[in-house]
Amino acid sequence: MATDQSSSSLREIADCNGAAARSTARLFSTDVGTGRNVMFLHGWTCDSGDWSGQLPFFESRYRTVAVDLRGHGKSEVMPSGAYSPEDYVADVESLITTRYRGEAFVLIGHSMGGQIAARLAARRPDLVDAVVSVDGALGFSEDTGKAFEKTAHDLQADDPRAVVAALFERVYGIATDPAHKRLHASRLQQVPLHVIRESFAPLFFGAGQVGIGDASAKFCARLTVPFYHLCLDPSQADRMGPWFSHSKSKVQAWSNAGHWIMQDRNVDVNAAVATWIDSL
Q: For 51-64, how does the pLDDT look when each residue is reduced to its tens digit (9 = 90+)?
């Protein structure tokens, strides 16, 4: 377990990461289909390719935008100190307000992307019709936070790619396709080290964190848009269920899947999410 001194260091890393002057990154995205606006946001060390099991289905039903976040995939790599959640949020906000002026989106985010989507909904509800969070970085218990604290510490002290690879192995499910694991491992080698190191801790530690404990509960309670959260832990689903005020919001625990629920159960996720979107 991390020491109090290391906890303090993590808070400093998280706080300082958002302290630099904020500028938006040039984001790569695809835009296919017609109908309701839907935007996909991937997770930490990933890219929009994570949604390959969703995009053909959603593109046939909606106008579907899939984004590579800053420092990931084909998007611009920003310098060290520019990987706080608010940096990521500012990029997506800028993308919508400049390229899709006057329009709003259903945001579908996985892991870190789920928290980014929720933060944008809190900051600019006029740009967000609803949020789908696929095991998003929200609602974790204090006990889970202790494990995340060790991960954040190890990212600074050890080889960050090895730390991420070990974390991924712990969160895969029995149903996770080995081909997906190989894709994740290969892609991880392409993510700059400072992006890996600096993106994780601010999700869960430091001033303004919304991923863990009471801070996450209070944040979610302030959201006004419909919110659909898919997670793995039934106790987490029970805990988070009452947090959301909109009548269309819901939280569901999914079985027979790992952290990439949308890859392990892509047909079921596609049907569930589309049904929910169409009900709004």
A: 999 999 999 999 99
Tell me the sheet residues that pair with 186.
none
Look up residue 82 and give its amino acid: A
Maximum separation of any 2 CA atoms in the chain, in Å:
52
CA dist 280 and 264 (Å) reads 26
Q: What share of the chain is helix, strand, coil (3-state, %, to 5)?
A: 50, 15, 35
- Cα separation values, 30 from 27, 33, 39, Å: 10, 10, 10
In the block, residue with structure tokens 């987490």: 236
3 state SS of 209: coil
pLDDT tens-digit readout, 144-202? 999 999 999 999 999 999 999 999 999 999 999 999 999 999 999 999 999 999 999 99
Q: Tell whether pTM > 0.85.
A: yes
Q: How would you list the strands of the sheet with 227-231, edge to edge?
A: 29-32, 63-67, 37-41, 105-110, 128-134, 227-231, 250-253
Q: Which amino acid is at 200?
A: F
Name the amino acid, one letter, at 225. Answer: V
- CATH 3.40.50.1820 is the classification of domain 4-275: yes
